[in-house]
Amino acid sequence: MSNKKDSYNVENQNAGRDINNIVICQRETKEKVTLPSIQCILRKGKTFKGDFSKKEPEWVDFEQGFIVERKEVDGIIEKLENEKIQLILGAPASGKSIILKNVGFKLANENKDVYAVELKKYSRDEVKLLFNNILKLNDEKLIFIVDDAHLSIENCERIVREFKNGGSGKLIIGSRPTEEILGVHPKKTSEFEYLSKIEVHAENVAEGMIKSFLKVEHNLSGERVNTIKNIKRYEKDLWFLSWALKAYDPKKNSVEEEEIYAKIRDSIRNIDTGKEITAINAEDVFLPLSFFYRFEIPIEREFLEEQMGIEGTIINRLIEMSEIVETEEIGRNKMLSFNHSSIAELYYGAYQRYPSFGKRISNKILNQKDRNKYLENCLFYKYITTYPRNAVEVVVHLRKTMKESQGAKILEKLTKCNKIQKSIEEGIKREKDILEIGKCLLFILQAREEAGSKLVNSIDIGDLSSKIDNEDDILKIGYSLFYIDNKEVKKNLVNNIDIDALSLKIEKEENISAIGECIEFISFSNEKIGLKLVEKINIDNLLSRIDNEDSIKNIGIFVACILHGNEEVGMKLIDKFSKIFENEDDIEKIEWIVSCISGKSEKAAVQLVDSFLKKNEKQDIVRIGYFLSNLRAHKDVMRELVLNFDIDILSSKIQDDEDIYAIGRFIWDISHASEEVGLKLVKSIDIDILTSKIDKEMNLNSVEWIMASISYTSEEVGLELVESVSSKIEREEDIVKISLCIDGTLRVNKNVACKLVENIDLDIFSSKINNDKNLNSVKRIISSISYASKDAGYELVKNIDLDILLSKINNEADLGDILRCILEISHTSSEVGSELVKSIDTDILLSKIKNGSGRLLIEYLMLNILYINEEFRLKLIKSYNKTSLKKYA
Question: How far apart are CA 438 and CA 82, in angstroms?
């Protein structure tokens, strides 16, 4: 996003005990938000006794060794020397948040200034405010830790992008490995894609946790710990493991799930406050929270107090004890959540197992319905219909978490209800975030097409286009349109957008890929408006974007998107881009960009050929072939590239490569791009060297490829290889592989295939057929040879031992295979076919017909045997008339 005029005050706040937080105040609204130091996050000086059982680790826990330090901690700290930004990836409950806090703890002990943003504890407005000001703190000594990036992808992408270009200090980001974070989205590059990454796994620390806990809590030796049978079953989820350890009874040698969930239930009913105050029973509070936050959906505090009748004092005490988290943002009520979705998942499991657990709240929600069947749906129904303002958030979170399939099922059930549909419609009207609106519309459509289509068609075009006009983030504008799966609605929306205002936003935008993608999605939605939008943007502005961007991939996307919006303007960028492109050495990036630009304008891609031709020529034949195969849909580009190849270089690569499968595929790709170049290439190959390679090859499938590709390109050269290939065929025992090899050549050049089979010793072939037990394989080889050469097929069939063939037919259970083999032999030689049919035992054939063959197959058999041998057909009819099959006679 473009930099706006500084409208914030940034001040230090001394919280005592060497803890310096940074307080950020927005001048216009006077809203304040604190960027806490790691000491504040870890409550340094607030507690003095370490513990294994805290919901969130504290300074004292690290000091007293209650946290098992992982090897990744030192790895991250070491990387800070050379890496400005690091990405720490881990599945839910893998321990990544503990690692990040441990990194902060160690760095703070080295007198480093470390600040942390735990995104689940901040509202959307607060996150924007914090990130905007992190970028303004001009101090290279600062270290920022951001956790749970998957909860605010767009904001995190922005801070990564802008931190790369001008942020001071170091940035460490923790996240779950979602599609957006990993950059696998087919339409979008990710700012996280090229960051230094460390992946963490729960299993790496589980053993240390188990031994440390059991030694301190129960004084168990390592040897005794090893006798506990199933504790490691829980090591993939550290929250589950921690509860398993809490539930462990030292008198036993195992921890069962029932014991874990019983421990969770009892703990929720009796939360120790650590003071001389009555313990808290939180089962009423935690039931709705657990059902929602397993999908990382926060819930309105008002819902618990007003609708569920829960006392605010209990909620306040739980917040004070860090059992739950409260956030608040402009225009929204206070929201409640757990510290982690895995906690919610475990609590949810306890509520599912114990019908009386949370009974007061479930009875209030269910209204006499069956708890196991309806509690979840009734809870979501009540929340969405009572507070439609939260409907969009609920829908989006149900689909975007790592429990996507479970969320989709809930959403499918909910959207069958008209009242829910109306609530979502109202929620969309109230929602200001256009990206969330777009996702909501898409997810409803995916959950239930009828409801999704109805919802999209109900959109107030004027209202949504007004929200789009008010949005400064052009990438959000683009993706909000991308997610709406209705061409007419998208077209009407774009017609209503203020294009003049949008073009000004684009000119101010610094992110080149955001510009490109916004323009592309506008063009996808409405080609005329896309054309008009690109025309409005100053060409010098667009050219300057290329000069200011370091990532060649981002430039490539930018140019491709401009080409899609307006090819004429895009072509003006190609000259500048080609000069940069010719300096790129990463062949994967080159291939990706060429394919991307080819998809938008083959004319532009053709103009780029000179800038990457030499790089492509330097690759091995597999890589060049792969590049060409990716361009098959873009014939002009593929042909231009091949026409400019140096034949001598390609020929030399073929001579040096021993993989004839790769050689065959390569020649095939070259010839399909340009028959003229393919012919020159094949004629330049030393036939003796190629023959030698074929002789050495053990796999006949590879021989098939080289023979087919050369025969397609040049019959003359194909014929020169016949002797070598026929020799390989004679040595092959698998007649299916032989038939495939012959068929491959037959498909591209019948003359070469004919010469090939005529060059084979048919006695050897008939011997192979006699030795093969599979009737279908026999049929295939006869078919291949007879189609290549009628004469060779005729001679082959005459040489087959009919007694052996009859034995195969008698042993074959599949009537279809029997019929196809008989017909193939009869087609090749009517005399042999007739003789074969006469020799078939009718009783055996009748028993096969009785055993489950379909009516059509039996009728087909009777019809075709008429043409093969009338005498046998009459014999078969006579036998039919004595059985239940006489209706087919």
Answer: 39
